[in-house]
Give the backbone structure.
Amino acid sequence: MADPTELKLDELGGGDIVAVAAPDPAEKTASDLAPVFDVPVGISAVLGRAHLSVAQLLQLGQGSVLELDRKVGEAIDIYVNNRLVARGEVVVVEDRLGVTMTEIIKDGDTAP
């Protein structure tokens, strides 16, 4: 079978005419994204959530414990510009906290 990127078009007459397939516009490379490399984005790592009334919030003080809706060892949510993009786990890097991504969230997949 002939190479699909080179097709000889004999029906046009004359000599051999070779048509070369155009690149697929859906194929993108990292260099195509160069214009957005400097656009700032906000990243949040959410350990968990809690719901309190204003009265409960005002009663919090130093040493108060706030119970979150996550269990120990459960993945945390990673948001980019308020959109869930990944899940991960907390790690310690030297004397700072960090996050290791363990799962990338595809569009529409937001179930924990």
About this structure: The beta strands are 6-8, 18-20, 43-46, 76-80, 83-93, 96-104. The first strand starts at residue 6 and ends at 8. The radius of gyration is 27 Å. Residues 3-9 have pLDDT under 50 and may be disordered.
